[in-house]
Here is the input.
Amino acid sequence: MAYFDVPEIDYTRYSNRQLAAVPLAVLAVALLVLVGSFLVLGSPVPMGMDFAGGTELTVQTSTPQDDIAGAFDEDANVRSTGTDNQYVVQFSDSDLQSLRTQAESGLEQDGSADIVQSASSMGATFGQQNQQTALFGLVIAFVGMSAIAFILFRTFVPSIAIIISAFSDLMIPLAFMRLTGIPLSLGTVAGLLMLIGYSVDSDILLNNHILRRGGDFYDSTHRAMRTGITMTVTSMAAMLVMGVAAFVLSIDLLASIGIILFVGLAADLMNTYMLNLSLLRWYKFEGVRS
Amino acid sequence: MNPIDGVKQNWRVLLLVVFLAFSVVALFVPGGIVADSSVANDSVESGPTNLEFGLDLDGGTRVRAPVTGMTAADIDAGVVSDSGQVDGDRIEEIESTLYTELELDQADARVTVDDGGSVSAEVFTDNVTQAEFAGALQSANVDASEDDIRDGVTEQTRSEIISTLRTKINEAGLSGGSVSEQTMQDTNYIVVEVPNMGSDELRRVLSERGVVEVVAYFPDENGNQTNETVLTQDKIANVDPPQQPQGPRGQSQGYVVPVQVKEGEAAEQFQRDMERYGFLDEGYTPQGACNLPEENGSISFDHEGEQYCLLTISDNEVVDAHSMGGLADGMIAGTWVNDPSFQMGAPSQQEAQSLSVNLRAGSLRAPLDLSPERAQLYSITPAHADQFKQYSLLIGLLSVVTVSGVVYTRYTDTRIALPMIVTALSEVVILLGFAAMIRMPLDLSHVAGFIAVVGTGVDDLVIIADEVLDEGDVSSARVFQSRFRKAFWVIGAAAATTIVALSPLAVLSLGDLKGFAIITILGVLIGVLITRPAYGDILRRLLTDR
Here is the structure.
């Protein structure tokens, strides 16, 4: 059976500046992508139905996939689900009633199953409000997390290191969404919030080992890494499996939570053990001790 | 080791076992432990567990829509005197000014006084602008400008709508439906969730205003046929289920909904009106009084001669017209007021049923705005929901297997890995038991929460295991305790951040995500308080000699 152990990295070979450069560069690229697309396209990430309004139908039909869009008056985006003859059709229009009627009259029934298996529509105004509420929730969660970080460590540098890492943990998956075209949905917002909670765990662990315990800096770091990387890798594996399985089976909510957390946790590995660590080392050896 | 010491040393494990046992009972024993036993008998589900499923996993329809209308709140209308006395005549005066100025139906405007004595005027239509509304209020000598008017209706109106809709949905024989209120960005939404109902049907129920009235149709002094409302919902005390009366020749004559008019003033007023409009005049014959022709199934008012009809009107549509029948005899004899029963006609059983429901539930105070731009609709067939249920189970199992695999390859020691996996799973079982106990309907978002709980749970167990195994073997219980306490600081801190990060979701009304947040927060709490300490005890027993 495969055996995995956390490798010991020789941090003494790298300066703080070198260590911090990589995650900061990635963060800069991510911010560039988000700001750029905000300026060019109007929103930092593509907005899904939950936030932009629209309709989504899951249809069961023997009509071939290529002909499905033709059954509707509106522009339709058709995607096959994991099940035979089942498709998800998305529209930017939110008039569910007429789209439903069009589906029922224009598509062939597959056996005795209902043509429209599920239908969901979101008014544009409603989506707008969702957007503001979601943003508000994210900000509150982030501020709350920052407050907890300060309460736990009561010193500036270690707390701010946690906050910067968490910020980067959020920005990198957001840029990833823009680049891969994953739309922002309620599911991805949940993933981002979960990420705030999850990603901070490994930072807290690292800070705790280095600051609150005695012993050599590199020993403490290695111990924290052994635990922390096991944790993060376990979560990443669970999220990857959930994300991929849900994607194949077309359960969008679970797929987006899984994928976002996977990407975010990968970013967190980098941020915790390069950015956060370099800040802590600087604080421990060179920083002004209060 | 005597039993008391045994309990003392293993109380954390015992607590976990007790919680697990409770959860298993709540989950699997029919009837289980249910917070509210009256609900338990309502819906006898024949699933293998006592879990309740929401729309995503059970099928049904949800509609989220704002209420149509606008409000001028806290207006100075001279309705409430300094001593707190409410002037009913002044209210009626303002209301009638609104009806005439804005050309509204009686149901579409009203003035209310809340418990704190503040007066609000509302209109329930989209056909009036804020400026027109303000203008109409000014014509009623109310000091109100356009700035005082906001979109939406008062809290009182919303709670009336909610209770009306609840009755309507329950009357329609749909168990498990729910109606609630949600506020987002200053807009108040009414959320209606009904299992086992398609979206078209629910839409129909919601778009029906359900205003039922009885109108007298009679010739006035000049011989012109006119309409006068003689009976409205608020004058009705009691409604019976629809009946199909037998006609003189034994055949059916449509359907009727028997109602009881409120005794006293309401009944007397009705009788006075009938008398005044000539329905009780001498020479009146019960059979010939009302004889409106029917065209294509609806009643036509294109007729000759004088007609004395009682029209049943639902949402401004004439449902049925019939003559006084036996009612006149009772009124003429003067006995009717003592037992003021009355039959409303309806042409079909469906009409009669909906009439009866509307009468019992009352009319919707204001209509819901079901327009595509503002409402949210979601519906899913039971078959598709069932598919989601199986897939969720599959995804959950896959995640657990993955986590177990990673943990095992990391520790390659069954003594550590196996209890870890079992403990993480017991967290999910306890959560499921809790969900069954409080009858929380599970949706896809909850499934995501359960998977997240396994994830965070295992994370924390990894922290405990690493901390305890650190620095060589655990030789004594004391060493174990001190290391365990160190590990717990990190776990507590991590739990606090997760709870803080997810609490906005548990409070904000952000669609499906509430369930996810609640389950994850609960899972973290159960983990920190019950299962993770127990894992520590299990590890101790396995690693130390005692």
Summary: Chain B touches chain A through 78 residues (CB under 8 Å). Chain B has three domains: 3-59+381-544, 69-151, 212-361.
